[in-house]
Amino acid sequence: MDRVEIASAGLNLLYALGIAWNKRWAWPAGFLGCVLAIWLFWDLHLYLEALLNAIYAALAVFGWWSWNRTESLPEISHWRPISLMAFILAVIAVSAPLGYGFEVWSNNPRPFADAFIFSFSVLATWMQAQRVFQNWYLWMGINLAMVFLCTDRGLLIYAGYSSIMLFLSFYGWQNWRSKATT
After folding, report:
1. Where in the sequence is the domain holding 151, given as residue range(s)?
2. What is the C-alpha to C-alpha distance for residues 93 and 116, in angstroms, rounded to an integer?
């Protein structure tokens, strides 16, 4: 399983760098990394992380399609604070019962962490595909949470990868900030 973890982390690292650099090739790299992560997380009973990576794979196809519709990439935009807050509250409203359900009806060792990471990651990836600047704030929190979850579950390679992704979230935020429209 170590090889799967290394390959998944490496491909997903390429994805993050590609997104930060506004490169379309990032989406296929992310797709492949997610397919490997599905296998990895399912094996560890982190079912929402496995499902999350299946959704990431689907969003990678959407991102690839979205970023390839025209010759130039769409403008980076900002969501109004009230819109962002509404989405965040909706994600919290979904995450809490999802975590409870997995606590009661599964052998997931960290159901609430898994549920919140899952829900916020879907929103953040969708925001990236739409080129919404504030996705980077969500990724900062998600990656920090993933460092703790992966360390707790003994996934030290993925914990290291998540630490790198945390710093790449800051890098992506800085890179997109200069290009974002208000």
Report:
1. 2-177
2. 10
